[in-house]
Amino acid sequence: MDVLTQNFSLYGQGFLGTVELTVYASLLALALGILMAAFRVAPVASLRAFGTAWVTVLRNTPLTLLFFAVMLGLPRFGLVLPFTVFAVIALGCYTSAFICEAVRAGINTVPVGQGEAARSLGMTFDQTLSAVVLPQAFRSVIPPIGSTLIALAKNSAIAGSFSVTELLGTYKPLNERGYSIIWSFVWIAAGYLIVTLAISAIFWLLERHWGVQR
Asked: PROSITE patterns, alphabetically (predicted)?
């Protein structure tokens, strides 16, 4: 217990850093994921190709390699931002590929007749997708999106290797101060457990209110 009580501020900074990364990266992942899902079902071939390429590249790229590409590659093109922002970009873009596939699977569960009926009323593709298809698809994709964002929270640990303040990175100064590495990791694991349980609770509530009853 001394490891926690004597280093509460250090753990607190790491915990808040992980929460910040998770929240911002989740928002970016949801926005990009829904957009790419729309691209993948769009009637325009170039949009479908872009969405497919986005998912294929990001899903098959190791997250650590993507971090290196963002952290070291973007500054070469004149884009210099805080490391935390770079970490959010890497996490958000990587996770968006999995969000995209979850949303696309949800879109495929909506009967084709729903879209055809909307188009027969004169609705455009954008109107049909946003007002008819996505609201119905959302109900079936709540669980997989929740699982994906839980994975994002745990993947945020990689950011600590790139000078970003987050929970896992607290073990380094604790080890230097001579604290037990085992107990250091016990409290780090407890912090991640709090974050993941919070996400699980949020999506449990969403599924309870809007999810498909099975």
From this structure: ABC_TM1
